[in-house]
Amino acid sequence: MKFEYRPYSKAKQLGKKPVKRKGKKRHGEMVKGRKIPSKTVRGRITKAEYIEALRRNGDCCYICGTTLNLEAHHVRFRSAGGRGKWRNIRFLCAEHHRGKYSPHRNEQLRKELEKLHEKLYGPWFWADKYDLFKAGLIPNTTDEEFEKFMKGEEKS
């Protein structure tokens, strides 16, 4: 007869049921009883935000003025917390968005764009309603409260 050594797990020794983990949760967080969507969702540019950015910021490349092959550029990068709101979008042609002189490669141009948007829309130009709610700047996450705050920040 062959003897195999199979020790009990710590959970079994203590009489606890093992906790089943299904992987990382990526559904956002809870703040003051409100569910906050994930940063991936909040960084996306919706069709409505894209159209509003075109209307407000112009339908041409910020650098060269062309109207061909335009791409929406997050002024404050998503990796730095920038959201997909029209105040954080500036249009660049494909060459200037991904090329040698892109704000992704040119620190001076990136800073210039951020200063422009901060001057036009205030220091929270990059934020969405959840950022303002988490910072305690608006009482709830309604679009009305968000727009009311942002309009107060804009420079006319």
From TrEMBL:
It comes from the Bacteria. Coiled coil: none annotated. One of its GO terms (molecular function) is nucleic acid binding. InterPro entries: HNH, HNH_nuc. Residues 61-100 form the HNH domain. Residues 13-33 have a biased composition (Basic residues). Residues 1-33 are annotated as: Disordered. It holds the Pfam family HNH. This is HNH domain-containing protein. It comes from Heyndrickxia coagulans.
